[in-house]
Each structure stands twice: as structure tokens, then as C-alpha cells.
Specification:
With 317 residues, the chain is an alpha+beta fold. The chain contains eleven helices and twelve strands. The protein is globular, with a radius of gyration of 22 Å.
Length: 317
């Protein structure tokens, strides 16, 4: 069993892909290194087809490390903190975790010919601390991980895969999206890896009409600015996780989806009713870079803002 780590361990320097590659016999594919995310780093690791087996030691750090086997299959043995060696098999869809301040020794060999590929991320204990305090109303220092650190979870797999897909498709991923996903990831991890059952019944009824109006009005007044989930949660006097859940219950969509919808609606209005340039319209709806706005608009509408404006002018929409 292991503690979550003290709160003084957060805001530490996250590892670079080069540092990770030095300890793992593979190359880094998709990475979040240049995304500027807070307290989390994501990397795709791709193993050479020539590597059929390996062994090594993963040194202890102040960060939690988690991985999703995305492709391929391996069998082997591992030991955590020089404890008992355990045999295991990892296949696509399996999750595994090495808590902060734990080291691991491992020996493995591949099964079959498929290239090994896994999605891994390092994250600060502060994410779990916030979740335990705000979602489950527990004292973080009393939280202990279960000894079973390999499991399957369709929700976690989908969340991790969604980050991977976003990084592959977009050079710059919306920080609002990552903020939302990271809190859901954290809650799901706590739920599965805690020694004791943690329950939370809040969020079943959604935001009250008065509270929802306050949040929606704030969003509509701030579309030209960077809006964070933390800001919206503060306006509702809730934790981030509770707010996201209750907002979705009340509206049917996440705050991130609602903000994108409102930005696209405002963009349509400006494209139809003003002579503003595409760059200026992007700024008005919260996109500092014209290319980011055009890409987001096309992803949402299926056409570029320029094409939409021309079509409207010609009466085709």
C-alpha cells in the first residue's frame, strides 16, 4: 500500500520526451511537451519491431506514472520497491500505474509480431489531492493505493485515447478540453485504485436554474477571452469536478462543448452581419491565432469561415 504523497510535491518539473526515452527502449511519437499543460505530460511510446525482449529499472520520482497498452502484447515479471516479483501479461486495453515515490524492476518479452505501442503520462499528485478533497470529501493523506496496479477500464481507456487523438489531429490542443478531461481521469483513477470505497452522491440534480444562468451569462460575456473551467466552477462556488458533472446534467453537454457552441454561434453572427476580417472575428470569439479559429470553425461547421461567409452572401445557406 502507498500514500498519495504530500501536497508539497506538486508543480514539479515534468519529464521531457528525451528523459523518458532514456529509460524506455522505444521512441517518442505524439507528445504534449509543447502544449504548456499544467501538472501533466503525455507521450506515445513506439517500440522497434526488432526489440523482442527487455529488462530495466524505472527510478522513483515525485510524479505518478500511468500507461495504456495501445497496441501489441507482452508477458513478463515485475517488482515494485524491491518487493515480490509478479508475473503478468499486458495486452491492448490494459492499464497499469506506478505511483509517485515508487520504483519498478521489470523483465518482459513480446507475444506475436505486432509492434508495441503504449500511451503514457506523468501527472502531479496535486490532481489526485484535488479530486479526493473536492469530489470524495476525504483527507488526501489517508488515501492509499490498492496493491493491484494493473486493470482494465473502458472509461479511462477512452479518456486517454481521446487525448491521443486530439494531439494527433491538432498541433495545439484547447487547454479547456485538457482541463476537463484531466479531472475526469483523476476521479476515475481514484475510484479504481483506492483501498476503500469512496462514494459521492452530489451532482445528480444538476445546477439550479439561477446558478446555470449566472454561469451562462458569464460565458456569453467572456467569449473573446480565455475561459477556464476553474473560473466557471468558482462562479458556481463548486469544485471543478462537481461543476462539470452538474453542468452536464443541467444542459446535456460539457462546459467545453457549450463554450465552443457559443463561440461558433457568435462567429456566425459576425460573419453574417459585419465586415470584420476572419482574424478579427477569431479574436472576438476567443482565438488569438487566425489559423486556430479557422481550424476550430471548420471542425465544427464542416466548412471554413471564409467559405461560409461566401456561401451566405450568395444565398446558399
Amino acid at each position: 500500500m502507498s500514500k498519495i504523497c504530500s501536497s508539497s510535491t506538486f508543480n514539479l518539473a515534468l519529464p521531457t520526451p528525451a528523459q523518458i526515452q532514456n529509460t524506455i527502449p522505444g521512441k517518442v511519437g505524439v507528445t504534449s511537451q509543447n502544449q504548456g499543460w499544467r501538472n501533466i505530460v503525455f507521450n506515445e511510446m513506439i517500440f522497434s519491431r526488432e526489440i523482442k525482449q527487455g529488462e530495466g529499472t524505472v527510478a522513483a520520482t515525485k510524479l505518478h506514472r500511468m500507461g495504456l497498452m495501445y497496441q501489441g502484447r507482452i508477458k513478463g515479471e515485475s517488482s515494485i520497491n524491491r518487493g515480490k516479483w509478479r508475473k503478468s501479461t499486458l495486452a491492448a486495453g490494459d492499464l497499469y500505474m506506478l505511483p509517485a515515490e515508487h520504483e519498478a524492476e521489470w523483465m518482459w518479452s513480446t507475444i506475436g509480431r505486432e509492434r508495441l505501442r503504449y500511451l503514457g503520462f506523468h501527472f502531479s499528485p496535486e490532481l489526485l489531492r484535488e479530486t479526493i478533497e473536492n469530489v470524495f470529501d476525504k483527507e488526501p493523506d489517508t488515501f492509499e493505493f490498492t496493491t493491484d496496479l494493473q486493470w482494465r477500464d473502458s472509461v479511462l481507456s477512452q479518456l486517454i485515447s481521446s487525448i491521443y487523438i486530439e494531439l494527433r489531429q491538432n498541433r495545439q490542443v484547447d487547454p479547456l478540453y485538457i482541463e476537463t478531461v484531466s479531472h475526469f481521469l483523476s476521479a476515475q483513477i481514484v475510484h479504481h485504485l483506492s483501498q476503500k470505497k469512496l462514494l459521492s452522491d452530489s451532482g445528480k440534480k444538476g445546477l439550479t436554474p439561477k446558478l446555470l444562468k449566472r454561469v451562462v451569462d458569464y460565458i456569453e460575456d467572456s467569449l473573446s477571452q480565455r475561459i477556464t473551467i476553474a473560473e466557471l466552477a468558482a462562479h458556481a462556488n463548486m469544485s471543478v469536478y462537481h461543476f462539470v458533472r452538474m453542468f452536464k446534467v443541467a444542459t446535456g453537454v460539457t462546459p467545453h462543448q457549450y463554450i465552443i457552441y457559443q463561440r461558433m454561434q457568435r462567429a456566425d453572427q459576425l460573419l453574417n452581419q459585419t465586415d470584420f476580417s476572419i482574424t478579427q472575428i477569431g479574436i472576438e470569439v476567443g482565438y488569438d491565432v487566425a489559423g486556430n479559429f479557422s481550424a476550430a470553425y471548420k471542425k465544427y461547421r464542416g466548412v471554413s469561415p471564409k467559405t461560409y461567409r461566401l456561401a451566405k452572401a450568395q444565398g446558399q445557406h
